[in-house]
Amino acid sequence: MADFDTLISNGHIIDGTGEKRFLSNLIIHNDKIISLFHPSKKKISIRNKNYLIKDLKFKREIDAQFHIVTPGFIDVHTHDDQNVFDDPTMSCKISQGVTTCIVGNCGISLAPFNFSGDVPAPIPLLGKKEVFKYARVRDYRDNFIKNPSSINVALLTGHSMLRVQAMNGDYNRAADEEEIKIMQDLLHKAMKDGSIGLSTGLAYPAASSAPTDEIIELAKVLKEYNGIFTTHMRNEGDNLINSVKETIKIGEVSGVRTVISHHKCAGRTNWGKSKKSLKLIENAKNNQHLDLDCYPYTASSTMLLKEFIARADKVLVTWSDKVKDLKVNDINNIAEEFNCSVNDVVDKLYPAGAIYFQMDDDDLNRILKFNGSMIGSDGLPGDKHPHPRLWGTFPRVLGKYSREMQLFSLEEAIFKMTGKSAATFGLEKRGLIKEGYFADIVIIDERNVIDNATYEKPLIPSSGIEQVFTNGQLVWKNLKAKLNFPGKFLEGKKFN
Ligand SMILES: [Zn+2]
User: Fold this and answer.
1) What residues sit around ligand 1, an ion, with C-beta below 5 angstroms?
2) How many domains is the chain built from?
3) Residues 225 and 336 in one domain
4) What Cα–Cα distance (Å) separates residue 340 from each residue in 333, 336, 344, 352?
């Protein structure tokens, strides 16, 4: 009979703290890392019991020589709310080494939502009407516990969902006092049910009429639960700097930990503004908890919306609910085919999705490199032809930005996707390789780890992610999902 479940030997461990790698063996038992010890050791002690290594038996032994062993990656910015049920293998994420997804970003979450009317953009990004069936976060949580995926999930409560419900669909204005009270009540319930915080999508129709004070009143609720506030800001283009200032103010007045989502400078006329935005963020960090996430691409992706088209160099339309057999195509070509204006194309195709080429490499490099920036894919799993970030984000940061461009060390890259992320989002005993921590683990070949998904062919798994464990169970090996579903619903940590 085996003493313990899994031995991973001779690997170089990058533990997620940002510190240098070290040679170590690692033992997993049940869902935890129970021992770390140098391969030259003959005796170890586990839970105050002494063992001779040569006598120990394991269910599985993995030789990780010449490989890197890291904590499972945390995708802090996802829209996988429904994807965890549609594809519980979560291959798009475990193939990258991701073992935890934060869902409910950009103001939209599957829960809590109890509303039967038509919904504004960008809510349809999460799916068709029938997937919105969770009046409370606990309903979503219970469904995930009953139908777990291969990855862990933590849920942000979407501001737009609260808004549409409280304002009964009449969202093109500021909420009044009574409506804010309703939103606060919904948020209290959501936090009690295990949501980790609140997200906003102030750039979108559902929430763009919400004044700063409305957000502050809601963020104050988070304070009681040590919840986190994440924001797809009001503007990421011409008004970027004002939006960063607005975000800093919300965090400062409410006193809650704040994360700027997918930080970017959109549109040629705004290229270079990251110098100023990062300076503002860095200064604010002296007085408040302020962080950001980003993805390693110069194109963004969301719904096809008129207000986003003008500033992009190029727009690829990727799906349309109205024209089901639409082929991925440049919006100008579609306009020519339809013999109409680009804006008319939007009306003819809506609801539809698009990829917008609109960012500069220098801004992207600066933001990725920024001290404390975290990696989040912002992938859109419902898209038939998604942006390659859905399948490529994490290996791309490791292969292209760390190994090839040497923007930062591998240790720092891993920190941005593990230890930093778990600490910021309050995910207890995750994000580090440490005794007593959950065994979310990735074995990587650092010599060839790289993304393979492209704008043309976005559904291709990456190279170099050899084995992935979630809560101690193997979920990915040799480019295949193992059909184990050990994912847990993660609730927020109680900070002091
Ligand atoms: Zn967003």
Assistant:
1) 106, 232
2) 3
3) no
4) 10, 7, 6, 17
Using one digit for the tens of pLDDT, what is the confidence trace for 126-181?
999 999 999 999 999 999 999 999 999 999 999 999 999 999 999 999 999 999 99
Q: How far is the CA of 352 from the centre of ligand 1 (A)?
A: 16
User: For residue 201, how far is its CA from the centre of ligand 1 (angstroms)?
Assistant: 6
Q: Residue 302 C-alpha to ligand 1 middle, in angstroms?
A: 8
106 alpha carbon – ligand 1 mean position (Å) = 4
> Do 51 and 77 belong to one domain?
no
Q: Does residue 58 sit in the same domain as residue 182?
A: no
CA of 368 to the centre of ligand 1 (A): 17
- Cβ neighbours, 10 Å, residue 291: 24
CA 243/CA 247 separation, integer angstroms: 6
User: By residue range, what is the domain housing residue 317?
Assistant: 303-356
Question: Residue 70 is inside which H or E element, if any?
Answer: strand 68-71
Cα(78) to ligand 1 centroid in Å equals: 9
What's the mean per-residue pLDDT of the chain?
A: 96
Distance 110 CA to ligand 1 centre (A): 15
Q: What is the value of pTM for the model shown?
A: 0.97
Residues 219 and 321 placed together within one structural domain of the fold: no
In tens, the pLDDT along 207-247 reads 999 999 999 999 999 999 999 999 999 999 999 999 999 99
Looking at the chain, the whole-number percentage of residues with pLDDT higher than 70 is 99
